[in-house]
């Protein structure tokens, strides 16, 4: 059995989004992406895949991802954060990179190493620690061809608008 065999998720069905990270120590950041995918009811999988510690697994994961049914990969890493770019070089699925902040350099090193991809191999990079937006962006990618999901995204955006207006009303009360 492959290390990356698809698993049933809490949303049921085969995962559409793969959330990978360089270390289990990244999970406190990457769990925000998990949370958003749960909120939108998107089947997903979570796996530690390290560019440096498990390079063979990374290659297998990236090369098999599309055939396993994944539509989007969210890849988080800290420090010398090669994972999103390496994965993007071995699949044509959209890859969203999350720079994970470490104690030293506050994630600026991760951001720069993820965002500065050479032309031809894109990684959609979110902000340092921006796993929440990575989850929402993955949902938007899937929502482009899924009207029901797009309706959930519209409702989510409306919720943000309503929240601002409620705060405005409270300021004026
Ligand atoms: C990176 O090294 C991981 O993505 C993580 O952010 C960082 C540190 O990993 P640990 O030493 O905490 O396992 O590859």
Automatic annotation (TrEMBL):
Keyword Nucleotide-binding: no
Pfam family, one: AIRC
A biological-process GO annotation: 'de novo' IMP biosynthetic process
This enzyme's EC code(s): 5.4.99.18
Keyword terms of this UniProt record: Isomerase, Lyase, Purine biosynthesis
All copies of domain PurE, residue ranges: 15-164
GO terms for MF: 5-(carboxyamino)imidazole ribonucleotide mutase activity; lyase activity
Top-level taxon: Bacteria
Swiss-Prot/TrEMBL catalytic activity: 5-carboxyamino-1-(5-phospho-D-ribosyl)imidazole + H(+) = 5-amino-1-(5-phospho-D-ribosyl)imidazole-4-carboxylate
Annotated positions binding substrate: 23, 26, 53
Pathway: Purine metabolism; IMP biosynthesis via de novo pathway; 5-amino-1-(5-phospho-D-ribosyl)imidazole-4-carboxylate from 5-amino-1-(5-phospho-D-ribosyl)imidazole (N5-CAIR route): step 2/2
Function in brief: Catalyzes the conversion of N5-carboxyaminoimidazole ribonucleotide (N5-CAIR) to 4-carboxy-5-aminoimidazole ribonucleotide (CAIR).
Family: Belongs to the AIR carboxylase family. Class I subfamily.
Full protein name: N5-carboxyaminoimidazole ribonucleotide mutase
Taxonomic source organism: Leucobacter denitrificans
Gene: purE
């Amino acid at each position: 059995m492959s290390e990356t065999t698809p698993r049933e998720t809490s949303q049921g069905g085969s995962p559409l989004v793969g959330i990978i990270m360089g270390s289990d120590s990244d999970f406190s950041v990457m769990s925000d992406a998990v949370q958003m995918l749960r909120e939108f009811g998107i089947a997903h999988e979570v796996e530690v895949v390290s560019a440096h510690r498990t390079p063979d697994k990374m290659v297998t994961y990236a090369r098999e991802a599309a055939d396993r049914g994944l539509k989007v990969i969210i890849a988080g890493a800290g420090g010398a954060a090669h994972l999103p770019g390496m994965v993007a070089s071995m699949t044509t699925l959209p890859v969203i990179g999350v720079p994970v902040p470490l104690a030293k350099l506050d994630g600026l090193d991760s951001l720069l190493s993820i965002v500065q991809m050479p032309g031809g191999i894109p990684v959609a990079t979110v902000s340092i620690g921006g796993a929440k937006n990575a989850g929402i962006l993955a949902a938007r990618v899937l929502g482009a061809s899924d009207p029901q999901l797009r309706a959930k995204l519209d409702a989510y955006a409306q919720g943000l608008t309503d929240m601002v207006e409620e705060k405005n009303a409270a300021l004026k009360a």
